[in-house]
Write a structure and sequence with these properties.
Layout lengths: L12 H18 L1 H4 L7 H11 L19 H9 L2 H5 L2 H14 L5 H4 L3 H11 L2 H14 L3 H11 L2 H12 L6 H13 L4 H14 L1 H20 L11 H30 L5 H12 L1 H34 L8
Helix pairs in contact: 1-14, 4-9, 4-10, 6-8, 8-17, 9-17, 10-17, 13-15, 13-16, 14-15, 14-17
Length: 330
Amino acid sequence: MVEFPKRSVLGDQTHVIRLIFTIVLGCLLAVSYGQASNLNLELPFAHNLIADSSDDSNSDSYNPTDNDSLTDSSALNLFVASGLKELVSHIPVSTASSFETALSAQQLPDLFLAVDQKAVGEAVNNAFKTETFNKYLVQELNTGMSAQAREYMLAWYSSSLGERVKKAEIENSLLTENARFDNYQVFLKHYPADANREALIEKLDTTMKSTESAIDMMGSIQVAFNLSLTRFMPEEHRLSRKEILEMVTRTQNELLSHYKEKTKAVLLFTYQSLNDEDLAKLNETLATDAGQDFIIATNTGIKKGMFAASLDLGDGLGALLDTLPENSGI
């Protein structure tokens, strides 16, 4: 975890947002295809997220396992066959655990330490729900891919390599194996991957747009969290939508180089059981039109889920701050 010095939330609002993003970064990187997108962080997309947020506020009412006449069965099948359903089911628990750790270590800004810690945990649990991510992922697999593309990916996941890729992504998910990943990073310092392996991983990162995707989702979280939280701030400290979007742009380049190295380590860890030939074939599959459609749909679904959860988290934490006495610093 990247550590930031404790300070008043009003002293630097970006501190809170960056810390929140750091906590959920493992969730973003853990779902491997959730990193993969050719959508870079652009202001029009952020504006679209803002516009869409009011329409999707009732995310908990949707259960993708229910019979839905508007959802093709192949979208639901791909959601399960790809391992995405199992992977995203760990996001709420992992996020809540990370917040508990941050609270125990007093890593949250001083102002949040003044509110009831149990209430903070409840706000996190209420915001990051499996149903939210299920909803958006199934929707994007349904609307963002053709039936032919879904059938192509379903057939690939039933192949020997597809099954081994799914197994590797689940068994080496950062959502459940963070301690093993930390140990693996130490291992890499002493025994780095050879040049050919690194080249394959870098090529896979390019095909999946993994690093850019992580930065993109960070921007979504920043926008959502600030949109919610700023409403609870004194008027002189509130941020306009324009200011929020400008803040997202400023932090993008700052984080790019750091997370490019982080992504390389994540991909090496995730696919450690695959040989070089497997990685090359995986890259070929993801580079196809169907593979790119799958990557974009999955990434967009997770991004929308993170956006919705971050909106809810901002509302929940903001409501807690709103209950503090006037002399508490807010």
